[in-house]
Amino acid sequence: MHDYSIRPADPTHIDAARAVMLDTVYRDFGTGYVPRWHGDIVDPAAAYLVPVRHTLLVALEPEGGEVVATAALDSRGPAHPPNPRRLAERYPSGETAQVRRVYVRPGHRRRGLARRMVEELLAFAAADGGYRAVYLHTDPSVPGAEAFWRSLGKVVHDEREEPGGGNGVVHFEIPVGW
Fold this sequence. Notes:
- By secondary structure, the protein is of the alpha+beta class.
- Helix 5 links the parallel strand 4 and strand 5.
- It has six helices and seven strands.
C-alpha cells in the first residue's frame, strides 16, 4: 500500500492541482475546459482556499511529493440550469456541502486514495456544523465513477431515467457525519 500524504492544499500546490484537474476534464471527460462548468479549475485558490467553508485536498505521492489527486468541497448547491430545479431547491447554497473535483491520476487509481480523500472532505463538512447535506453529481460514462459514488451515497436523481436521457448525470447525497 502506498503511503500517500493527504492534506489541505496550500498555494504551493495550486499549479499541480490545476494540472490534475485539467488533465482529467480533457482525458476522462473528453469535454476539455468549459468555463461555465470548470471556472473553479482556473483559480482553485479563490474557489477553495480563500472561503472558510471550502477546502481543496491534495494527495502527494510518497517518493517525490508530486500531486497525484485532488478533492474539493464548497458551499454551493447545484445550479439550475443545468441541473434539475428540484435538486437546486433541495440542496440550497450555504446549507449544502458539494463535493467536487475528486480526481486521481490513472497510475494511482484503485488504491483507496479517492475514498480516503472523500472521508476527509466529509469530516471537514461535519466539523463545519452548518451543512445539512452533502451533494455531488457524476458522469456515469467515466469508468468506475458511478460504482464508486454508489458505494458512498444514495442516488437522489438519475438523469438517464428522464425522457430523452437528460444530461446523463447521476446525482448523489452522502449523509453528513458519514
